[in-house]
Amino acid sequence: MFLARLKLTNFKNYESQYFDFSARLNCLTGLNGMGKTNVLDAIHLICLCKSHSGLSDRNLVRHEESFYRVEGHFDQAGEHTKIVARFLAGQSKEFERNGNTLERLSDHIGRFPVVMIAPDDVALVQEGSEDRRKFIDSTLSQNSAEYLGSLMTYNALLRQRNALLKSFAEYHRFDSALLESIDRQMPEPASVVFSHRKAFEATLIPLFSDFYSAISGSRERVSVTYQSDLEEKSMESVLSENLDKDRVLQRTTAGVHKDDLRLFMNDLPVKKFASQGQLKSFLLALRLAQYEALRLSTGTAPILLLDDIFDKLDENRVRHLVGLLLERDFGQVFITDTQRLRIEAVIREFPGDFRIFEVENGSVSV
Ligand SMILES: Nc1ncnc2c1ncn2[C@@H]1O[C@H](COP(=O)(O)OP(=O)(O)O)[C@@H](O)[C@H]1O
Ligand SMILES: [Mg+2]
Description:
The protein is built from 13 helices and 15 strands. It is an alpha/beta fold.
């Protein structure tokens, strides 16, 4: 599967621009602020229905304009699919597949799997558990409609439950029947979410340590452990045991929305003990393991988006990494770099097909 053509209209700093991509390797070069990451973000959007930047659709519209449109043409084993994402200010975003409007965006997510590795990935290690849950969710949502559905149901119930707990406190009354009606519905989606995450842990661990040693060439022991309130208890008992606390704090304090991944190097938390270089290798290995896990579960090599990952890596390491990516038969790869000469030097040795795009202020030359 690969993205053959991308057309951007009023998307961020692009007024009107199309790209014909190589099925293998595409490099976007140009100075900072020219629009390289914006292209990766558009690819992320067309595959996963949302921007990687986390910006709302309004903010993806080119300044002074009222709409954006992103059109992607995918080729998969000779089959051609045209996807259009469209957003008009004040209305909700629409997706079209081969001319037909999609009823539910969740039907689209995972058809064209994608993994993005970006400089802000350090948040995976350094920030709170939310970024790590996003990491899990973005993988599992792409490989299982059941997972995505259960996660959405669970989150909707969670919002209702938290609103209820707030209103109990506000009006000084407690309606146990109302709360129970929500609590009865949560265990089912919670256990689906839990079991998928548990299985993901088992897939991820060996892939991750494999990639870590391939990237770093070193022997630190790295590991990742999934941690959940549901590990030892059912969601029913998690909810009932925490009821008093939940009422005081006016929110649901335990459940799969508190799950986390714990990251270790030589049995110590990575956050505290890894050097900058080790951290960079650790994050790359985690993302590439995610990539491989997605490939295994979807049966399709995902699109790999590498944003500025060569920053702060010396040329030998870049060469090593690109070699690793290409020899492992990754699918279509996109790389951004501010230094054209660096990227050219590395990929000149690459025997397969590649294209280099020079990005300047939202316009592109090949
Ligand atoms: N909604 C928008 N409308 C117009 N320009 C935008 C919008 N959002 C971002 N930009 C511009 O996009 C540029 C950043 O593009 P980006 O892809 O991050 O650059 P880089 O090449 O460094 O990756 C900035 O100049 C920014 O002002
Ligand atoms: Mg950038």
